[in-house]
Design goal:
638 residues, alpha+beta, Immunoglobulin-like, 39 strands, 36% strand, elongated
């Protein structure tokens, strides 16, 4: 089907693809060197290398021959208006048949760009700036250097009345020159758009700038480069090698680590179409930043320069092939297993492993043997890694220290942009450790429930004790409050009693003063009668009435009642301590209890002060008081 030829050789097996889209010329001897440019011109084929310029006839079966005088680095071959130019390390050459003629005055030329609407002028990008070549008659010659720009101009494009020069380390220059192309009018530097191996390219009505962060298209309205999302999807930063682009007719070719990408426009809706070819950087063996390709005579045939020759590409022979992926080997090891020691497993059976066999290594392959066929793989492990991994050329993967559980390993491959027909898989299980078994979990649950029960009981006991303490504290506080209330009640009652005593005392004092006053008045009246009235008939009855009133016992009874109300315990204590006292003695004690003087007591008894003193003396004797003890103090303290 693929017209392959397998050879059994002394040192191995050889594989020849007879219908391969790639034909490789590998300059092992180094006669040609690294190819930087290729062009088919008239009936000749020219290649520019780091060794110089070589040629051969299209019909010749012999090798390339060197063109004298072109020794050194050839950067670019350009056909402009039917003339073949060679941009060389030593200057610009015009190639005629098998001869090279240098344009005088040119040095270190990167490229040439024709000036629009001028068949006799060209811009030359050189090592030290921009130059103008002029055609006078049939001869091209150096006219002038454009003053005001001194930077190396490897990438030069004339677009929208400006000259754009890309410098990888300084940025992208937008240059405006005068109408005669002799001096720079203004220079704008875009320092945001710069980077290693970046490049610009004019294709049709678009100016493209490519670098590691994407591909931008110049917008003439805003005067800025705007990122193009479709073209920027051609590569990621990890897949980026160079921004170098090649325009071949309506096609633009891009070079990435994994493939070649051709961008063309659909004939139906003029939208861009991307075609990717499985020819990665390692297969191309190209020089990064100097990738190049050109179209051969037949449509779909191209030549790519490499670091040691070139590759012929026939895109018509590229066919999408169906392919599968298989798991080659599965090895299960323990944590302490020595290197390369382990148990090989059957790939078509489900694995069931003990917990310590938790390291697994899986190898896989895609049975495609093309030299430029480089399968890439993507995998995932259901049960721990649900997402697909990044695409990788590694054909094995190892998972270490997997936890217990059920797993399904899936892997698929990719060649170019085509994914394998199938997804290979392997299902296995890693058992739980003994302390992770269902029985152990049930035991943990039982112990947990038991612990919760005891914890619940402890909390209940704690809160019950706490509640009892609170109740006890509350009862104690209530008892204290009750005692304080009772104490307050007693205090209030005492206050009331004291108040009553004060009232009774006031009454007693008022009664005593009333008796004193009455007796004093009666005695004064009696004295007046004795002094003023001589008639016994008048004085006698009045005096009798006064004496009866003074000696009448009713006043004592009233006083006694008031005294008992004010000091009810005194008379009882007095009778108990001195039962031998007479009524007058008790009466005297009551007056002394009120702290009345002898002078005040006399009128109450209707006797003289001296008689009161005698009565007091007799009372001391009856009470048996010692000579030095005060009678009034004794009665007050009784």
């Amino acid at each position: 089907m693929d017209k392959s030829l397998w050879l059994g050789l002394d040192n191995g097996i050889g594989h020849i693809v007879l219908n391969s889209p790639y034909l490789i010329y590998d300059d092992i001897i180094g006669d040609i060197g690294s190819v930087y440019s290729y062009i088919s011109f008239n009936d000749m084929i020219y290649i520019g290398t780091n060794q110089g310029l070589f040629y051969k006839s299209k019909s010749s079966m012999s090798g390339f021959e060197f063109i004298p005088g072109t020794q050194g680095q050839v950067w670019q071959l350009e056909e402009i208006n039917g003339i073949l130019f060679c941009c060389h390390h030593n200057g610009t050459f015009i190639i005629e048949d098998k001869k090279a003629k240098k344009i005088e005055g040119t040095e270190g030329t990167w490229n040439l760009r024709p000036i629009k609407n001028s068949d006799n002028l060209m811009i030359q990008g050189s090592y030290d700036g921009l130059y103008v070549l002029e055609k006078r008659g049939d001869i091209w010659q150096l006219r002038n250097k454009i003053d005001g720009f001194e930077n190396s101009s490897r990438f030069v494009e004339l677009f929208d009345e400006f000259i754009f020069v890309n410098h990888e380390y300084k940025g992208l220059y937008k240059i405006s020159v005068d109408d005669a192309f002799r001096a720079v009018k203004s220079v704008q530097i875009d320092t945001v758009l710069w980077g290693d191996n970046s490049a610009i390219l004019s294709s049709g009505d678009e100016l493209l700038y490519a670098h590691q962060k994407g591909i931008h298209i110049y917008d003439g309205v805003s005067g800025r480069f705007l990122k193009d999302s479709l073209l920027s999807s051609l590569y990621t930063e990890a897949n980026y090698t160079s921004g170098k682009m090649t325009a071949i007719g309506d096609e633009i070719w891009f070079f990435t680590k994994d493939n070649l990408s051709m961008v063309s426009k659909s004939s139906l809706n003029n939208k861009r179409v991307i075609t990717k070819i499985e020819l990665g950087e390692s297969s191309r063996n190209s020089i990064s930043g100097y990738e190049n390709m050109a179209q051969l005579k037949n449509v779909g045939n191209y030549v790519l320069g490499t670091g040691s020759g070139y590759i012929l590409l026939d895109t018509k022979k590229i066919r999408e092939k169906r392919f599968n992926i298989e798991i080659a080997e599965i090895k299960m090891t323990t944590t302490n297993s020595p290197d390369n020691a382990g148990q090989l497993l059957a790939t078509d059976k489900m694995g069931d492993f003990e917990h310590y066999k938790n390291n697994i290594t899986l190898s896989f392959y895609t049975p495609e043997y093309g030299k430029y066929t480089h399968p890439r793989y993507q995998y995932r492990l259901h049960g721990i890694y649900q997402n697909w991994s990044e695409w990788s050329s590694s054909h094995s993967v190892q998972f270490n220290n997997l936890p217990y559980g059920d797993y399904t390993f899936e892997v698929r491959s990719k060649i170019g942009e085509q994914i394998s027909e199938n997804t290979a898989s392997f299902t296995f299980k890693i058992q739980k450790k003994w302390y992770q078994s269902n029985l152990a979990i049930a035991l943990y649950a039982f112990i947990g429930i038991l612990g919760l029960f005891f914890m619940h009981m402890a909390y209940r006991r704690h809160y019950r004790q706490r509640q009892e303490k609170l109740l006890e504290k509350s009862e104690k506080e209530m008892r204290i409050a009750k005692a304080e209330n009772e104490k307050e009640i007693v205090r209030l009652k005492n206050e009331q009693l004291k108040q009553r005593v004060r009232l009774k005392s006031n009454e007693l004092a008022a009664s005593t003063m009333s008796l004193l006053r009455k007796n004093e008045v009666l005695n004064e009246v009696k004295n007046l009668l004795d002094n003023k009235v001589k008639d016994p008939g008048i004085k006698g009855p009045i005096t009798k009435i006064i004496d009866e009133s003074l000696t009448k016992n009713d006043d004592w009874e009233l006083f006694k009642e008031a005294f008992n109300n004010a000091d009810k315990d005194f008379l009882g204590k007095l009778n108990k301590s001195h039962p031998n006292l007479t009524q007058n003695d008790i009466r005297l004690c009551a007056y002394l209890r009120l702290n009345l003087s002898s002078k005040e007591i006399g009128p109450l008894f209707n006797i003289s002060t001296k008689s009161v003193e005698i009565k007091r003396y007799r009372l001391r004797k009856k009470m048996g008081l010692e000579h030095d003890k005060n009678l009034v103090d004794y009665i007050l303290n009784l």
